[in-house]
Amino acid sequence: MKLRQQWILAGVATLVLTASAIVCRAALLDGTRWQITISPDPAAADKGQKGFADQLTFAGEKFSSEFFLAKGFKPASYHSEIEPNEAEFEVEQASESEGVLTWLGEIRGTTITGRLVWRKDDGTKLAFEFSGAKR
């Protein structure tokens, strides 16, 4: 085989392996559930918001919140960056009547932390911090 053909085959093999690694890594969060506590930041607390418990689920390449599912926020696709023993994710969920949620989270081993911003349809913006553990 000529040197040029060998380089082309090596390049194609690298692309295939890289693409399959990205797909596998994206699926690493799938099938996990997290029990979390959500706490309002000072501004949201001043608006009467209280802390509450929630369960987050990553399944079928979708993210869902048990608490917000009851408020009409359907499961949504998530974006993640995964490294050994850690991951970062971002997801936006919308409700027809309750507004938009933006979740930014970080997973290290079996713990999860992050920030949640809820932009309600009336223009109110509420921010929360969350933390918890894998179920």
Structural features:
Lipocalin; eight-stranded antiparallel beta barrel; single chain; alpha+beta; 135 residues; 24% helix
Largest sheet: 8 strands, antiparallel, barrel
Order of helices and strands: HEHEEHEEEEE
Spatial strand order of the main sheet: 1-2-3-4-5-6-7-8
* CATH fold name: Lipocalin
Strand coverage percent: over 45%
Structure annotation, total helices = 3
Uncertain segments: 13-26
CATH class: Mainly Beta
Give helix % range.
10-25%
Description:
By secondary structure, the chain is an alpha+beta fold. The protein has an eight-stranded antiparallel barrel. The protein is elongated, with a radius of gyration of 19 Å. 23% of the residues are buried. It is 24% helix and 50% strand. It has a single domain, classed as Beta Barrel (Lipocalin), CATH 2.40.128. It has three helices and eight strands, in the order H-E-H-E-E-H-E-E-E-E-E.
